[in-house]
Amino acid sequence: MDVGFGRNKKEQLEPVRARVTGKIPTWLQGMLLRNGPGMHTVGETRYNHWFDGLALLHSFTIRDGEVYYRSKYLRSDTYNANVEANRIVVSEFGTMAYPDPCKNIFSKAFSYLSHTIPDFTDNCLINIMKCGEDFYATTETNYIRKINPQTLETLEKVDYRKYVAVNVATSHPHYDAAGNVLNMGTSIVDKGKTKYVIFKIPATVPEDRKKGKSPLKHTEVFCSIPSRSLLSPSYYHSFGFTENYIIFLEQPFKLDILKMATAYIRGVTWASCLAFHREDKTYIHIVDQRTRKPMPTKFYTDPMVVFHHVNAYEEDGCLLFDVVAYEDSSLYQLFYLANLNQDFEEHSRLTSVPVLRRFAVPLHAAQDAEVGSNLIKLTSTTARALKEKDNQVYCQPELLYEGLELPRINYAHNGKRYRYVFAAEVQWSPIPTKRQSCATMWWTPRIKGNRPTQCLPSRISPSQAERVELKLGRLIFFVKILFVEHLLYPRDNAKCCAVTCP
Ligand SMILES: CC1=C(/C=C/C(C)=C/C=C/C(C)=C/C=C/C=C(C)/C=C/C=C(C)/C=C/C=C(\C)C=O)C(C)(C)CCC1
User: Fold this and answer.
1) Does the pLDDT value for residue 68 go beyond 70?
2) What is the pLDDT of residues 283-334, one digit of tens each?
3) How confident is the model at residue 116 (pLDDT cuts 50, 70, 90)?
């Protein structure tokens, strides 16, 4: 197996014409911008985790059936400081670094006293965000970097904290019909409170205030949701968005703020300050965009870890949302570079499989319903919302697909009933044991086009015995571009078709 994960990539500064197999229709014109880690070694030093790598920007210009590719490293302050020192001097998610290699415990302590949490990285390696006419490379700290999409040059460094009180923010914002950006961040122990802040960056600046003003200067807080815990807010990577609602999962995968505040002096990574609390619930917050307030009903579900929301939509008084969910946080382990080597298949032990789950929440009249009743009357889903006492509702998802990640949709269909998800398939291949047929059974119905839920227990989580079986199993991944049709219009013979990546 060719393992290219940790290898430094070369920039392609001048556009190069790509070899096209097949035919690109001439109506397809434009530029695809991508972002991701490209450099994991600086001088003699090496990052620990794949998510740490220095951001490499890519552009694919599609014109008259041809594709022109170029790439350039983001010249972040982090990149410049590392290159100048010829070693890693800025901490990333899975690597704690110190500007001075000779620092002993005393000087570390001094540094600790002068800044409890060191300034976060501006190595914006995760996504690209469009903000008005401008483009930004994004990560999950308080920094974003403006870029020139044509030349991939790095422009201004923007600190979200100048405009809104957030210490971390997602790199997967949403856009409303007018092109305004809606994003979420966490404000940590600010004035004695920790809260999740939904903020809006307008697409345009009002005419009278226009002169050279960036839309960021007009950022406003849309709504904030108090964290259940002051010192351990949830980690989240994305959220759901429809015309009228915002969906935020307060999951039991949490940042430990006390650990973060002492990480620098203890010499441990940010990653080690994240923990999954399997004894906790996942709280589902639904914000009504018309009132800018969260719904009062306490919706919750079983503990899970979600990175990617796929889509959400409203149907007959219900809000449905689809996410890729795990039963633990083992995914982060998988991406340590030490594991991404020739023995990858041996080391790639995920203790849970990414599953596409559909949740449904009732938007009205939950208060008067009988305890124990299912508030979802839709025929299009088997997801349930069970009324409990104290205005609580337990949400039980429908399992749509096992073994899928990195989902994309045609964003024109965001917030609407939809038909297609484009994703990478993650294939589960257990060690042959007596129970292999059970695991196979979970997959076979999908291939035949039946509904996978039919062969799973009523609560989708595997039983204790099955979980042990999963732990014993070995995961082998086959990345495929997977195209799942079925999600919206389930039929008896729904089609799932996979196209292997070249
Ligand atoms: C620096 C600080 C932080 C940083 C956080 C960062 C940089 C978070 C990055 C999160 C990312 C990039 C999340 C990506 C998720 C990707 C997923 C779920 C992919 C799954 C793929 C699978 C299962 C399949 C793989 C198949 C393979 C490998 C086949 O060969 C904070 C915010 C934590 C704290 C402050 C400081």
Assistant:
1) yes
2) 999 999 999 999 999 999 999 999 999 999 999 999 999 999 999 998 888 8
3) low
The answer to whether 409 and 324 have CB atoms below 8 angstroms apart is no
* DSSP E strand boundaries for 202-290: 220-226, 240-241, 245-250, 253-255, 274-276, 282-288
- Taking the CB of residue 368, how many other CB atoms lie within 10 A of it? 7
Residue 416: is it exposed, middle or buried by C-beta count within 10 angstroms (0-12/13-18/19+)?
Answer: middle
The backbone torsions φ and ψ at residue 312, rounded to the nearest 5 degrees and listed phi first, read -150, 155
Which pLDDT value is given to residue 420?
96
Q: Residue whose CA is closest, atom 21 of ligand 1?
A: 405
- Summarised one tens digit per residue, pLDDT across range 242-270 is 999 999 999 999 999 999 999 988 999 99
pTM, two decimals, is 0.85
Which is more confident, 499 or 76? 76
User: Residue type at 108?
Assistant: K
Give the number of residues written for the chain: 502
Q: Are 174 and 130 in contact (CB under 8 A)?
A: no
Distance 330 CA to ligand 1 centre (A): 11
Q: How far is the CA of 93 from the centre of ligand 1 (A)?
A: 9
Q: How far apart are CA 348 and CA 187, in angstroms?
A: 34
Give the residues surrounding ligand 1 with Cβ less than 6 Å away: 51, 92-93, 120-121, 126, 139-141, 168, 237, 270, 307, 331, 354, 405-406, 426, 477, 479
CA proximity to 357, closest of 326, 319, 392, 391: 326
Using CA of residue 257, residue 261, residue 264, residue 268, what is the dihedral sign? Answer: negative
Specify the ligand 1 atom closest to the Cα of 354.
23
pLDDT at 457 over 70: no
Number of H helices, E strands in the chain: 7, 32
Per-residue model confidence (pLDDT) at position 187? 97
Residue 451 in contact with residue 490, Cβ under 8 Å?
Answer: yes
- CA-to-CA distance for 331 and 34, rounded, in angstroms? 22
413 marked among binding-site residues: no
Q: What is the DSSP letter of 333?
A: H
Map residue 444 onto helix, strand or coil.
helix
126 CA distance to ligand 1 centroid (A)?
9
